[in-house]
Amino acid sequence: MTDITNKLPSNKVYETSITLPRGTLDLTYQTNSTLDNDTTYQLEDLLGFAQRINPKRAFLFVSKVLGRHIPVTASSMRKAFTDLANLVPSDLPEPILVIGMAETAVGLSAGVHQALQTRYPNALLLNSTRHAQHNDDNSETLLTTFSEDHSHASQHLIYQSSNKATQEQLLASKTLIMVDDEASTGNTCVNVVTALRSAGLSQLGQVHLTTLVDWSLNQNQDAADMEDTISTRLPNIDFYRHHLLSGAWQWTDAPNPEPITMPSVDTTEAGSQALGDTGNWGRFPTLDSTDGFNNYLAKFQSAFTRFSGQAPFDKEQLPERILVLGSNEFVWLPFLLTEWLEAKTQHSKPVATVNFSALTRSPIALGGAITNMLSFSDNYGLGMTNFAYNVEPSDWDLIVLCVETASDSVDEMWQGLDNVLVVSPSI
After folding, report:
1. Distance from chain centroid for Cα 87
2. Where would I find the H helices in 270-331?
3. FRET pair for 350, CA 20 to 30 Å: which of 133, 181, 216, 303?
4. Are 268 and 155 in contact (CB under 8 A)?
5. Are strands 96-100 and 59-63 parallel, antiparallel or unpaired?
6. Closest alpha carbon to 148 in 109, 178, 113
7. Which helix (H) or strand (E) element contains residue 358?
8. What Rg value do the Cα atoms of the chain yield, rounded?
């Protein structure tokens, strides 16, 4: 492994090796001591490790603060969102666009965006998506597409706004804050910026790659060399990186690894199940990512009233162990619901446990940070397998499964569990 001790900033450098069935992952990393609140995130605070079922890349960094593959509290997620946002400088050129990467980072981007709005109240949020949108009047049209080359589902869609003022602000963006869970090569960032500039965002002058973990020193280059390389590929762009932890990885294949077959999950089709009205939380450009939450909260309260047999809704009837599950890209409103439930139950006796996680199309092997796996048909009508990781249904008194499709779109596995409450826009 290349020794980058003298190439990284002056913080202490650590090394570790992770052995997985298909090979060994060697890490050299350092913590970030520049956070305002003296928080230092250690490797074990942010990440576990697992094996992808993906021939493009054999390993996966499993976040412990995203609520995607490991159930976590909303408060720990919110803290990571805010700490990451606080690394972004003040006095950036405006208009500012915050863009998140589907599906893993769409909740992270909304959390970073919401925190940034204390300084940049007019910042726009826009997430990429892999779900094509149906609009009878064709008012929402595609802005651009880009590719995430190493992903299990490489193609991304980005939509524009039907609101003239919002669209004008989007196209006039001078600063792009690209939010993702991790960066390795910088290729996705280059692909995104290139696509946006070609789509009309010609005034972009700064790009801030904002990630929980930055592994972009992986190419045996120091930070300045990597930034110079990206700047060369993105002429007339000033490039910056912000992260909670950084370093480099090197992967070594095991001798004669067993062949793998990746499930078919690489599609941007709309699916046969219609998407209900959940407001605008970032699939289209928005200033207010909480749009739709109050209505979705009311849907939950109504569903829980029927589920518990109590009327009207009474927070005192909430059980002690609650897991909220988002579904694929639909995670931000479910996260806000988790946060609401956490606040409502924090003074209960005994104190309730409220965690958040999500269904995903990402195929991951058992082992390492993945202790168990549920597989089932997706609720979008795409005919693909979805997964829930590290979720044992019997561990929870109540599982709140949040979807943006009809209630009966969820797999019969979920419908057959008596502790699962499905919340959908159609309730």
Report:
1. 18
2. 293-308
3. 303
4. yes
5. unpaired
6. 178
7. strand 353-359
8. 21
Q: Please answer whether residues 303 and 423 qualify as being in contact, where contact means their C-beta atoms are separated by less than 8 angstroms.
A: yes
pTM here is 0.91
- In this prediction, residue 195 carries a pLDDT of 94
Rounded to whole angstroms, the Cα distance separating 110 from 286 reads 10
> What pLDDT score was predicted for residue 147?
76
Tell the burial category of 181 from Cβ atoms under 10 Å away from its Cβ (0-12, 13-18, 19+): buried
- Among 203, 173, 181, 176, CA closest to 191: 176
- The helix (run of H) or strand (run of E) holding residue 164 is helix 164-171
Residue in 341, 260, 252, 267 with CA at minimum distance from that of residue 301:
341
Measured CA to CA, the distance from residue 296 to residue 166 in angstroms comes to: 24
- Alpha carbon separation from 365 to 278, 350, 368, 384 (Å, rounded): 32, 36, 9, 17
Give the model confidence (pLDDT) of 41-52 as tens digits: 999 999 999 998
**In whole angstroms, how far apart are CA 299 and each of 261, 277, 293, 295, 329?**
39, 12, 10, 6, 19
Tell me how far apart the terminal alpha carbons of the chain are, to the nearest angstrom.
Answer: 55
User: Which run of H or E residues covers position 412?
Assistant: helix 412-415
Residue ranges of the chain with per-residue pLDDT less than 70: 1-11, 34-38, 134-140, 148-154, 217-231, 261-268, 349, 427
pLDDT tens per residue across span 281-299: 999 999 999 999 999 999 9
Best CA proximity match to 339, nearest among 82, 45, 161? 82
DSSP string, 198-227: HTT-TT--EEEEEEEEE-GGGGT--HHHHH
CA atoms within 13 A on the CB side of 374: 22
| Alpha-carbon gap, residue 330 to 225, rounded angstroms | 37
Q: In whole angstroms, what is the distance from residue 53 CA to residue 20 CA?
A: 12
Q: What torsion do the CA atoms of 272, 136, 132, 63 make, to the nearest 10 degrees?
A: -90
